[in-house]
Amino acid sequence: MRIHRLTLQAVGPFPGKHTIDVDSLSANGLFLLEGPTGAGKSTIIDAVVFALYGGVAGGESSDDRLHSDHAAPDAEPFVELTFSTGAGIYRVWRSPKYQRLKKRGGGTTTQNARAKLWRLSHVEDAGEPVSAQVQEVGTELGRIVVLDRAQFTQTVVLPQGQFASFLRAKPEDRRTVLQDVFGTEIYDRLQKRLAEMARAARTELDRATTEVTAAASAFAACLEPVADGGEHTSSPSVTREALLERAAELDAAALTDAAGEVCAQADARAAEAADARDAAAAAEATARDQLDAQRNLAERLRRRGALLAEQRTHEAAEPAVRAGTERLQLARTAAAVVPVLEAHERAVARVSRATGLHSRLLDQARTGLHPDLADLDGPDALREGHDAATGALGALAELVELEADLPRRRSEVEAARRAADLAGNRVGELEAAVAARPAARQALEDALDQYRDAGARRERALGRSRRARECLTAATGAEATASQVAAAEEALTAVAARAAAALDAEHAVRLRWVAGMAGALAGRLVAGEPCAVCGATEHPHPARPTPEHATDDEVAAATAAREDADAELTRARARLAALGEKAAALHEAADGLDTTEARARLATAEAELAAAEAAITRNAELEQELSDHERETASLQERLAEHRSTAASLRERCEHLARQLTADEARCAQGRGTTSSVAEYAEELRGRARTARALLDATTELLTAREAVREAEERLAAALTAAGFADAEAARAAVLPAAEQRELDQRIQRHRSDVARVTAGLAEDGIAGLTGTEVADVPAAQTTHAEAMAALTRAAGAASAAELRCRQAREAADDLLAALAAHAEGTRRAAPVLRAAALATAGEGNTIDTTLATYVLLRRFEDVVAAANDRLSLMSDGRYTLERIDEREGGQRSRKAGLGLRVRDHVTDVPRDPHTLSGGETFYVSLCLALGLADVVRSEAGGVELGTLFVDEGFGSLDPGTLDAVMTELGRLREGGRSVGIVSHVADLKDRIPERIEVRRLPSGASTLTVRC
C-alpha cells in the first residue's frame, strides 16, 4: 500500500487545515518527520491510521486524541487520505464524533462520526463514490487494505523502544509478544480444544463401558431360576459370575453367545406355558357353553309362566274394552257438530252486542253537540256527514300547526333582535382593540433594537473567555514547568559529572591496556617463530605482564560505562532543552501573565460571556413576543371582519322573521271564524267526525250480525241431520272433552298392544315348544365352570410370567448388544481425537516433546530471526548475527523451550547474551529484529506490499559510523519504490534528509507544520 496525500483539519494540536503531498515528499525514498517533543508528530501518524480504520494507532478513542481544542467553534475536524493498493486508487474522508455549536440558539450538540469513500482513476481524479456510511466504509477498506489495524501499526509504524525490550525479554515474555503479533492464540485454542475433546472422548468411553457393565448386570438378572414343571432350575451353561467376568473384559463374542443361549431357553419355556394355557381355555369354553344352555332354559320357563298369567288377565278385561270403543266412536261423531254449534252461539251473541251499542250511540248523539246526526237514516247518510266534517278538518290542519308555533316564533324574533344588538357591541370592542395594536408593536421594536448585536457580543465574549482559559492553563503549566526545569538542571549537573568520571575511567583503563601491550605480545611469542613486531626468531628477554595490566574485557566494560553515561547525558540535555522550550512556549501562550492575573482575566471574560448569554436570551424572548404580537393582531383583524359579517346577517334575519310572523298571525285570525282559536274550531269538527264514524260503524255492525245469525242457523240444521242427532241437545250430550278422549283411546290401544305382545311371545320358538315339565340345573353347571375358570387362570398366569421373562431376557440381551456396539463405535470415533490431542499437547507419540502452539511459534520465530539477520549483517559490517536457542539467555533452561536468543560475535566467534550489547548495538539489533518481524507479519498477511513505512525510533544513541550503517539499511527499504518516513528530532538527520515535515508550536499552544521538499 502507498500513501499519496494526507489532508487534516482541526485535528490534535493543529487547528488549521494542512495538506501533505507524500508523493512529492518521498520522491527520493526517505523523508523526515521532525519537531520538538509533544508538538504533534504522532498526530500525523494517528491521522493516517484514523482515516483507514476509524481509530488511532494506540487504539484509544478518536474523540480523545483527534478533535482539536484550539480550533474555531465552527471548524469541522476531518482527515482525508488518498492511497493506492493492488485493488486500485482510493480516497477516504473521515470526521470523528465531536461537540459542535447548535445551529439554532446557544450551547453545543453531539455530531456523530461520518465517513466517505471514493474510487479514483488517478490521484487527482474527483472519483466515483463508493459509500457514505461509516460501517460500509469500514467494510470496504478492510477488503481493500487487507491488513487489520494491529498488523498495520506493526508494519507501517514501528513503535519506539518496543523491540529493544523484546530483544532482552525472557523467553516466556517473548512468547506472549509473538502470540500477540502473529495471532497464534488460535493454535492455543486448538490445542486446548483438542485436550477438551480428548477428555470428552475418554469420558464418553468410560460412560459406554459403564453402560456395558450395567447392561450385563441387568441381563444377568434373567439367569435367576424359573418355574418349570413345579421345580426350580437354572441355565446349565451360562452363570452370572461368568457373564459379569466377560462384561468386565468387554468380550463381545462371549456375551453375544450367552445372550443367544439364554433367550432360546426362555423361548422354549414360554412356548410350553402357552400350550398349557390354550388347553385350559378350551375346557373353560366347554363349561361356559353348558352353563349358558342351563341359564337359557331357566329363563324360557320363567317367561312362559309370566305370559300365560298375563293372557288370563287380558281375557277378563275384554267386555269393558268393547264398551269403551263404542263410547269413543259416538264422541268422535259429535265432535264434527261442535264447531257449527259454537259458530251459531257466537253469531247470536254478536247480534245482542251490536244492538246494545247502536242504541247507546243514538242516545249520546241526541244529547250531545250534534243531535242532527241521530236523525240520519242508514249508513249512506251517516257516511256523508262524516266525510263533510273530515274535509273541513283537513283544511284547518296547516293553520292549527301555524297557530301553535306563533309563541315560539315571537320569542325567536325577540332573541334575534337581542343577538343583533350584542353583535354590534362586540364589533365596537374589537375595533377599539385593533386601533391600539400599532403602538404596542412599536414599543416591542424599540426594546428589541437594544439587543440586535447580542450574537456578535457573545462570539466576542466567547473568544475572550476561551483565550483567557487558555492563558490560565498555560500560566499554570508554566509554573509547574519552571520547577521541572530547575530539577532538570540539577540532574544535568550530576549526570555531566558522572559522564566526565566515566570518560576519565575509560581513559585510565586504556592507558593501562596500552602499557600492558608488551606483556600481552610477549605472552604470544613461540620459540623459533618470528616476532610480530621485530621479526626475530630468538626472544632472549621477553617482557612480562604487569599486575596493573588491563584486559580487553575491562576496556570493553569501561567503554560501555562511558557510552551509557554519554547516552544518559544526551538524554538529560534533551530533557532540559525540551523543558526550557516548553516553559518558554507556555509563558508566551499565557501572554506573560501569572496565574493570579490569568484567573482575574478569566473571571472578567466569563462575566462578559454571561452578560452576552443573558442578552441573547432576552433578544430571543423579545423576538418571540413580537412574533406573538403580530400573530395576535392578525387574529383580532380576522375576528373583527367575522363579527361585522355576523352582525349584518343577524339584523337581516331579525327583520325577515318579524315580517313572516305578522303575515301568519293574520291568516290564523281569518281561519278561526266565530271561535276563539283555530285549534278550538278544529276540535269541534273532530268531535262531529268521531260521532258520525261511531254511528256509521255501529249501524254497519248490527246489519252484518243479523245476516250472520241467519247463515249459522242454516249450517247447524244441516250438520245435525248429517250426524244423525235429533237436535242440538243430543249432540251436546255425546260430546267428550279432548283429554277424556285421549285417555280412553290410550287404554284401548294399550289393551290391544298387550294382547298382541302376549300372543307373539307364546308363539316364539323357544316358548311354544315347552310343555312346562322341563327342569333347569343351573347350580351344577356354575360349579363345573368355576373349576374350569380357576384352571385357566393358573395356566394364563404361568404363561404370562413365562412370556414376561422371555421378553425381559430379549430386551436385556438387545440392550447388552446395543451397549457393546455403542462402545465399539465410540472406541472407533475416539481413536483419532485421542491421537491428535496427544500430538498437540506433547503426549504419547510426540517425539519432539513440543506442543502445537509452541511449535508454530518456533517456526515463526525462526523466520523473524532469519529476516533480522539479513539486515543485521549489513548494519554490523558482518560482525553480529542472531541465533535462536532452546535455553534461556545466560545458560538456564527455559520452561518454554526454543524462544531464547543470543548474539554471535563473528570477530571473537563467541556467543553473547543480548544484555551485554552496548546502547548503540542494542538499538540497531533491535531495529533489525523489528524490521524482520514486520516483514514476516507482512508476509503472513498475504504478502501485502507496503509502499510507505514510518520508523518511530530514537536515533540519538548511535555513533556516526553506526548511524551511517542504519541509514544505509533503511535506504534499502526504499528499493522497488518503497518510501520510508523517519520520526525523530535528532539534529544530524536534518542534514542527511532534506525532504521533511517540520512540526512547530505556536505561541497559543497550538501547532503548525511545514512540508519541505
UniProtKB/TrEMBL annotation:
SUPFAM superfamilies: P-loop containing nucleoside triphosphate hydrolases (SSF52540)
Coiled coil region boundaries: 555-667, 695-722
Recorded superkingdom: Bacteria
InterPro entries, per the entry: P-loop_NTPase (IPR027417), Rad50/SbcC_AAA (IPR038729)
UniProt keyword list: Coiled coil
Family: Belongs to the SMC family. SbcC subfamily.
Record text on subunit structure and interactions: Heterodimer of SbcC and SbcD.
UniProt name for this protein: Nuclease SbcCD subunit C
Organism: Georgenia daeguensis
